[in-house]
């Protein structure tokens, strides 16, 4: 049955698209319109947008407009109204047939081509929609509202045509850190107003690790006006040269549908809903298991600007071990939210900014924390300064960020009156150098500075890494 439905959809789109070629050969007269009178009573191709209570009124109005088109085939205003009502009733193919017949009376009219592009987009016929959108902005005097709407749809088509695919990147390399264990550099700390000297083993230490990181994404077309099923998998593993208690293994899977919001007349927007499942192993021991749900709203503000709003809930279950006997105190619920915007200033440069919040409700108050974070940055593509096997551009990026954390209760080990507060600033630079198709060298350097009213948690860290990446 699925195969028959696909063939039926394909034949319907083909017949609608072929109406233009037929109309150019023979001008439609009243007889041609009469032969397609069934359009006014066609079954919906998609779910109607109009309220069910008004469908009968819409149908009655369509009948009146259809009679007008019979009498005056060149009346564009009537045709546009008829097509708009057909779209509200879910009869997209009826609307398409009407507008395509009008092309003979108004060839190249941007408004007409825009409306046809929108209808084909709603049917999921992206290539045909793109043809009409390109035509709508090809003339010399295109109205700016038409051009802006077309650019939004073209950007959405670029995204939607990437569905039903599998892609990913794997990076393997070496990383050096000046303070791999995130410990203080000063041996003198104060606990409840009393100075203590830390043993050398408790101070920050440099170390090198080998790592493998993977990010994978799978899209499955749901064959319903641009909706899709999306799965992502992120993995990371690291082995340290000296501090094997920091050896890390991480995996996180998200899975859920992504809905195209054009059905609600929100152009260039999608809403994703997903489940979350993940875990972390640290030093060879189970460290964290997490499960939750999330939502992701993406809106193309224009062809070069993208807005992303994300929200997640997770339950985090930390596991005690011989090395970390009290880490289970951090078990609890976590709420994460962010708003990010990305703008392509030029074909070579993309800028971005993000504002986020993070709330962790742990089993104990001194591990419960509210976080606010901000980051800004950009990526620049530029021609290779030296001869390379590939002509692909190099990419340089920079990100600057700030994080502020306020903990709920004082930790009695450090203070009986003051809860912990931390401020963190960081800067990171990256460089990606393509070396052949889908292969590149990636280098990164960063500096992170953390300052806390609890001396034990103040530290800084310099990190550099070099790796080989494979994209597919």
Short description:
By secondary structure, the chain is α+β, with helices and mostly antiparallel strands.
Please, could you describe this protein's structure?
By secondary structure, the chain is α+β, with helices and mostly antiparallel strands. It folds into 2 domains: 159 residues, Tetratricopeptide repeat domain (Serine Threonine Protein Phosphatase 5, Tetratricopeptide repeat); 306 residues, monomeric porin ompg (Porin, Beta Barrel), CATH 2.40.160.40. The chain has 8 helices and 16 strands. The protein has a 14-stranded antiparallel beta barrel with strand order 1-4-5-6-7-8-9-10-11-12-13-14-15-16. Strands 2-3 form a two-stranded antiparallel ribbon. A hairpin with a 2-residue loop joins strand 7 and strand 8. Helix 1 runs parallel beside helix 5, helix 4 packs antiparallel against helix 5 and helix 5 runs antiparallel to helix 6. The two termini are 33 Å apart.
Overall mean pLDDT stands at 85
At CATH level 3, the topology of the largest domain is: Porin
Largest sheet: 14 strands, antiparallel, barrel
Number of continuous helical runs: 8
**Level-1 CATH class name of the largest domain:** Mainly Beta
